[in-house]
Design goal:
Elements: E1 2-7, E2 11-18, E3 21-28, H1 34-44, E4 53-57, H2 60-66, E5 73-78, H3 84-87, E6 112-115, E7 118-119, E8 125-127, H4 131-144, E9 148-151, H5 161-169, E10 175-178, H6 179-182, H7 188-216, E11 220-224, E12 230-232, H8 233-238, H9 246-261, E13 266-272, E14 277-283, E15 285-286, E16 288-289, E17 292-294, E18 297-299, E19 303-304, E20 307-309, E21 315-319, E22 325-331, H10 350-356, E23 365-366, E24 370-371, H11 374-388, H12 392-414, E25 426-430, H13 438-444, E26 449-452, H14 459-466, E27 469-480, H15 486-504, E28 510-520, E29 527-530, H16 540-555, E30 563-574, E31 595-603, E32 606-616, E33 625-627, E34 630-634, E35 637-641, E36 645-649, E37 655-659
Parallel strand pairs: 1-4, 4-11, 5-6, 5-9, 9-10, 13-25, 25-26, 32-34
Antiparallel strand pairs: 1-2, 2-3, 7-8, 11-12, 13-14, 14-15, 14-20, 16-19, 17-18, 21-22, 23-24, 26-37, 27-30, 28-29, 28-30, 31-32, 33-36, 34-35, 36-37
Helix pairs in contact: 2-7, 9-14, 10-11, 10-12, 11-12, 12-13
Length: 661
Amino acid sequence: MFLGVDTGGTFTDFVYYSAQGLRFHKVLSTPTDPSLAIEQGIAEMGLQADQLHLVHGSTVATNAVLERKGVKTLFVTNAGFEDLLTIGRQTRAELYQLCPELPEQWLGRDDCVGLAGRIDAAGAPAEPLDHGALKQLCGYIRAGNYDAVAICMLFSFLNPAHEREVAAALPEHLFASASHQVLAEYREYERAATTFLNAYVGPLVQRYLRRLQHVLSPKYLYVMHSAGGVMQAEAAGEHAVRLLLSGPAGGLVAAGRVGRQLHTDQLLTFDMGGTSTDVALMCGEPLMTTEGKLAGLPVSLPMLDIHTIGAGGGSQAWIDEAGLPQVGPQSAGAFPGPVCYGRGGEEVTVTDANLLLGRIPADARLAGSLPLDRQAAAEAFERYGRALGLTPLQAARAVIDIAEEHMAGALRVVSVQKGYDPGDFSLLCFGGAGGLHACALAEKLSMRKVIIPVASGAFSALGMLAGRQQSEFSRTRCMDAAHADTVVQLTSLFGELSDEARQQMPGLPLLFERRVDMRYAGQGFHLLISLPDGNEPVDIALLLERFARAHRQAYGHLLDRPVEVITVRLTACVDRTELAWPTMQSVGGEALPSTFTDVYAAVGDVATAMSVPAYQRSALLPGMQLTGPALVLEDIATTWLPAGWQLQLSPHGHLLLETLV
């Protein structure tokens, strides 16, 4: 019996998979202690925790970074490099801003210690570590009451001896994060920032997972990580920085399964929850990146290429200093939540706007049990609209327009800005609020097809059940791709990484996926290029061909320069059976609405109500067709089908929407 649990900022989603099929559930999140919502959901579903194979998408690490609530951390590096995290790369986000905002200082000067000793650029010891300073370091840690230590020494990716010496000298109870174990790659700043974040949130994640294990005592406990796989809870506590995209990654894993079912390779994914919206582009499989960033700090671990903005159902509307309406990134979250939740929220949100306009019926129950107060939303929009000279319905329409423009912009970032035409893709939409805006976003991007998958309101939790156990390994070695020894070096490095994977994942039937970072000589950036999987010999000609294709796709041109291989990457994974949806029996005829509800349109100063049929998704079968305007209702999500769109079901129960224009 498998249970996928995705903890979001507003709702915690559950998907239970057994021999009897799939069950879905949703409860309000408990931000102060996410395990409380998990315990509540398991109890409401009538499940026995000790019989569950539990796969969890956790926001503990992400929230600790975003809210600056990590543990007190000491940064240890080489003497003279104590300001590494403060100086960074000296790049300016706004090149022509005369008075730019200074980058945030995560650590005070007293929280950074430099030790004498040096490994040179060839990986050879140039100067031994100062062992007297090592002894003083332990006293400094006790006096400063530090909870964690991040260790990042120069060239440790070539020779980690000095980092190991430092780690061995630290008190055993202290959480220590060494860069050669977190990210064995070049670029000191990125390696230091990733190692620091791992130490900053590691003790919190460890305590949370241990408490979850103690409270629930599931049969197995796995955690989704940012690269789209799952890892054992013990490993997740040690490598907490790998969990920063834990929840959104599940949605992309499930999206890949749906794409294969529908024989659709080109997908733009759109995940709109209560707090944020996550978007990504897929060409068969989710794209990977090693250039992630969170709260201004680089996270250079392999992760799914997901772009996130603060636009969700709970995003609050406000008026800026120029008197212009804005939406987000602030969110009402689970508590107090939108005004219509009746829990003390005062600022209008996107959910309030959808309720007032009738896209969410007034008698709907969010998560199957939470009643909504449309009158409270109307009164709040009366106050908000008065400040803008708008009626409540006009103000609600404006809030939705602004939010949808933000979301369309995010979709352009992952498509147009990377050389892809959105019109060549289908929009795969999920998240509790996604179906309310999917068609409008498709129209903005000239997309003709939208897919609302089974369990769209708990889709990330479903993806966690489909995630395979996997770990990521890497080594930086700079090689000329045309050099005669490059094939030998690559083969040797992949062999070393395979041995390391077998040591960390003993007894498992491992499959290996191979990638390399490549660039033209002199470039400051790289592209991630895949090799054939398994143990096939390295084919340099194939690598160069794939690099040229990727460079032209990303930048529109090629260069007459030597090509370098910078970093070798290996994904070790355990294959698992595909998560299967049962095929539904096709029928003919038209679907019958369960009810009719009023949906409002604000045109100029006139508010027009139209009676719209509402259908229960559970009553729809393949072969039935709907034509908008219409609503499709379920406990965990709502889909708005506007005029000019039609809908039919796939044999597996996915909603397939297509524009008629």
